[in-house]
Amino acid sequence: MKDKRSITRKQIIDAASACFAEYGYDKTTFDDVAKRAGISRTLIYTYFKSKQEFFFTMMDEKHKNYLRQSQEVLNSSLSTKEKLRKIIDIWIIDPHRIIYKSPLPNIWLKPVKSIQESEKLLRGDFIKSLVPLVGYDLAEVIVFSYKGLLDDKPSIEILEKRTDILISSLKMLPNDE
Q: Into which CATH architecture does domain 55-177 fall?
């Protein structure tokens, strides 16, 4: 059973995530998060010292979840291309589906792109999730290619099509036994 401190911390992270999605990073306040979490603003300060710390903790929790999901895919009996597609869905397609459903998607994307450490952590964890499947060099190429594939803010349908083209064009994928 989780202790009260870890439950409250998760409650705050969940509330912060919901506030970032609804109001955007810039407009979210500690008061918003406290109200959504059903706790006092003062209590939040015992867990987090800044909004940026909320954001990094929230992103870290998401990355841990993506890594766990990626490991499940790697352990499955899917083909290499199917595994690659599923891992890309976990790290890129599914989060963008959620972001694009948000009333103000650019407000949600802005802090991820503007906080360099956040983007660097995302890339590093995404690469780490692909390495067992395709090796470091190809994982790095795939991950960095998404910076260009996402540059024009494509619809999910276009992003999925681009992903399918990318995967089908890869000649360096290990053969399935």
A: Orthogonal Bundle (1.10)
Residues 108, 85, 172, 70: is their CA dihedral positive or negative?
positive
Q: Is 1-49 a CATH 1.10.10.60 domain?
A: yes
H/E run at residue 11 = helix 4-23
Return residue ranges of the chain for CATH 1.10.10.60.
1-49
State pTM to two decimals.
0.77
CB 159 within 8 A of CB 121: no
Contacts of 97 (CB under 8 A, 6+ apart): 156
Q: Cα Rg for the chain, rounded, in angstroms? A: 18
Only one residue has tokens 């912060």, namely 16
Please provide residue 76's backbone torsions phi and psi, each rounded to the nearest 5 degrees. Answer: -80, 175
Give the three-state DSSP class for 29. coil
Higher model confidence: residue 74 or residue 103? 74
Q: How far apart are CA 63 and CA 90, in angstroms?
A: 10
